[in-house]
Write a structure and sequence with these properties.
Blueprint lengths: L1 E5 L3 H10 L5 E6 L11 E4 L5 H10 L2 E4 L6 H10 L1 E2 L3 H7 L2 H10 L7 E4 L2 H11 L3 E5 L9 E4 L5 H7 L5 E5 L5 E9 L5 E3 L2 E7 L2 E8 L5 H15 L3 E10 L2 E8 L9 H4 L4 H9 L12 E8 L7 H4 L3 E5 L9 E9 L2 H18 L3
Parallel strand pairs: 1-2, 1-4, 2-3, 4-5
Antiparallel strand pairs: 6-9, 7-8, 7-9, 10-11, 10-12, 10-14, 12-13, 13-16, 14-15, 16-18, 17-18
Helix pairs in contact: 1-10, 2-3
The structure holds adenosine-5'-triphosphate and magnesium ion (2 copies).
Length: 364
Amino acid sequence: MKIGILGGGQLARMIALAGYPLGLKFIVLDPDPNAGAGGLSEHLHGAYDDPQLLAELAEKADIVTYEFENVPADVAAFLSSHTTVYPPANALAVAQDRLLEKNFFRELGIGTAPYRAIDSLADLEQAMPEIGYPAILKSRRMGYDGKGQALLHSAQDLAAAWESVAGVPCIVEGFVGFSREVSIIAARSPSGHIVFYPLSENRHKGGILRIAECRNNDALQAQAENHVRLLLERLGYVGVVALELFDVDGELLANEFAPRVHNSGHWTIEGAETSQFENHLRAILDLPLGSTKPRGLAAMVNFIGGLAPDPAVLALADSHLHLYDKEPRKGRKVAHATVRSDDGIIYAETLEKLRLLAEAVDDS
Ligand code: ATP
Ligand code: MG
Ligand code: MG
């Protein structure tokens, strides 16, 4: 079996690493000449919408999936007409446009921050009295790690914010005073079987995820599962999904979802019986889904920046280092480390040491 993946970065690399024990092979399509899933996969090098490369991918792969959701909708449609593509193209269409995504949450009865569609500075000026300050202007498409976003503190910020997003179609969202951010990762198979991971509690800085901790038996687990189940069933979804949520006094508001494996689920590699990467492969191949049971305490720390993490990470007991073999660049995720332990004290100490080691190389 050969799995085709659109995108050949660290997510594709970790999917491939999970797939080798199952006897799977991989082929990625990525415009970056260095992005062959870290050398673990056959690599088609070129644009996502190159018809010849897409035809070659559909021909060579038994099934196609994504690590990158911002591929043009007609690419997903083209591939779907030539081979099996999971998650389905409709999930991509919704997830890659923040307006459709927020409307979709509302249709499902899932709460969100107040929001409005913004296509001009006049729209923004008109929306703000209703939305209130602070608020965030976000481009509808192509944003990640907080890119394409501007914080609005008062009416004086509006013109500069609109200019900073270069006048592309946007939404404006009220700022949510959450007590914490969590995400739920789930996998659904073609027959409709769903498994849920324990919640991840996520710490961001500057719009970039820094730390994700497994929260076993969280009081809001059932609420999060209900939200993500609604989403999976409405979309006829197949594969792994991640739903990002704000906890506001025990009510979970939806922020966004990713139709793919997710950074907040990297702790599942060592911290769960079956990783999110393996369960994604099992789901798209219609194999039995694996147990999502946590294996003790687990948390993940991202390493962001131009420098490789200190080898001291390897010297820490109960820590596991994952280097992505990526060209260093400012603000780029180049590695992560996971702490997994049965001992609460070792866990807390190691997590704090990893946090400091990550902070030392952070250039974002
Ligand atoms: P990702 O890398 O997760 O795809 P993104 O660029 O799509 O990021 P968001 O998830 O929308 O951006 O926002 C990044 C972070 O900014 C959130 O995780 C949260 O910490 C903060 N944030 C975004 N929207 C809001 C909001 N309405 N209220 C409060 N904080 C917010
Ligand atoms: Mg996002
Ligand atoms: Mg996000």
